[in-house]
Write a structure and sequence with these properties.
Largest sheet: none
Strand content: under 5%
Mean pLDDT: 95
Order of helices and strands: HHHHHHH
Number of strands: 0
Helix content: over 70%
Radius of gyration: 17 Å
Length: 182
């Protein structure tokens, strides 16, 4: 399997979530810096609604991109097994990094600081995942070559649970944030 399944497939599947998180940071902090968040708040929506909208858009695009990569790999003769669990994993990672990005944007308020924090924190978090019984890249590789173990599926479920927890936390933090102070 070599390079294709151990490097290329994980890279292609992890890239969309990380890009989504980065775009989420920029999208939210640009709203703050340019004052367009004030215009959005004139509409009958809450800050939670605004953050939810940005999060949902950025999270939704990552599995679509990943699915397209899986299809394109297949067209080029590189079969990728277990697309559904792979897309669940991509969606979970996208949710976690988008939520992280939006929270950092909400707390930092400035694009430059939020983007730097996002980059550093995402690298640290992804790096610490090496201490798990199975690194996310290994999970992707095992799923892609159709040799997942019970631990592989437990990791996918754990990532989905972490994503759910992160989203609930983000909503709670956003709900407690005073929009006037932004």
């Amino acid at each position: 399997f070599g390079f294709t399944y151990t490097v290329l497939v994980p890279l292609l599947l992890f890239l969309p979530p990380f890009i989504s998180g980065s775009i989420a940071v920029d999208a939210f902090t640009e709203e703050l810096e340019r004052g367009t968040l004030e215009l959005l708040r004139v509409a009958p929506v809450t800050l939670v609604d605004i953050v939810d909208g940005k999060a949902m858009g950025m999270v939704a695009i990552a599995p679509v991109q990943a699915a397209l990569w899986i299809v394109l790999l297949g067209v080029n003769g590189i079969g990728v097994a277990n697309p559904l669990p792979l897309l669940v994993l991509v969606t979970a990672f996208a949710t976690v990094v988008v939520v992280l990005g939006l929270l950092l944007g909400l707390l930092a308020g400035r694009r430059r600081q939020a983007q730097l924090l996002y980059s550093v924190v995402v690298l640290l978090v992804f790096g610490t995942l090496v201490f798990l019984p199975e690194h996310p890249a290994t999970t992707v590789a095992k799923l892609a070559v159709d040799s997942p173990t019970t631990v592989t599926y437990l990791h996918v479920a754990g990532y989905a649970a972490a994503a759910t927890g992160a989203y609930v936390l983000a909503r709670a933090v956003t709900r407690r944030t005073d929009p006037e102070g932004l």
